[in-house]
Amino acid sequence: MNRRIVTALLTICILAAAPALQAQQKTITILVDVRSGIIMGRDTTSSEELPKLLAERLWKSYLSTGKMYERIEMITKGEVLMGTRGAVFDAIQRGQQIALKRVCVYKYKKMYEDMDTAQQARVRKKFKVLFQETFS
Q: Phi and psi dihedrals of 88, rounded to 5?
């Protein structure tokens, strides 16, 4: 029983601190917990819904500020299985691809793959979070 209380308090502390850290560092933090599942900000989700949720958060950030988050961070709590980590990693990458597609079509009126090399380099420089490969 005490372990559950400590786990609940730790989760609340992380969630309470996350908005302040995100505002300061422009980081999206994804907490993968054995008991709670996948938590991003105030949202609890599954690995199937994570790409859509992540893409929406990146997209809305871009639309409201003209800028995007600087990085995505994945934190694991407890003994998360490698299969679960892999599923979350893949879900993050799918979310990045969805957001990249939206931004390119919106801003450049073409898909990233259809851009010339110089234009792709500008997109990579401006939207680094969409090309981030490590999340720890």
A: -70, -40
Q: Which two tokens stand for residue 90?
A: 């893949």
CA 82 – CA 76 distance, rounded (Å): 11
Instruction: Give me the long-range contacts of 48-52 (CB less than 8 A, separation at least 24).
Output: 48/91, 50/88, 50/91, 50/92, 50/95, 51/91, 51/92, 51/94, 51/95, 51/98, 52/95, 52/98
Within 10 Å of residue 1's Cβ, how many Cβ atoms? 5
pLDDT tens profile 62-117: 999 888 999 999 999 989 899 999 999 999 999 999 999 999 999 999 999 999 99
**Which residues lie closer than 8 Å to 76 by C-beta, 6 or more apart?**
31, 32, 33, 85
Cα–Cα distance for residue pair 3/43, rounded to 1 Å: 23
Query: Tokens standing for 1?
Result: 């029983």
pTM: 0.79
User: How many Cβ atoms from other residues are within 10 Å of residue 57's Cβ?
Assistant: 20
| Helix extents (H) in the chain | 2-25, 50-65, 82-108, 117-126
**What CA–CA distance (Å, rounded) separates 67 from 77?**
30
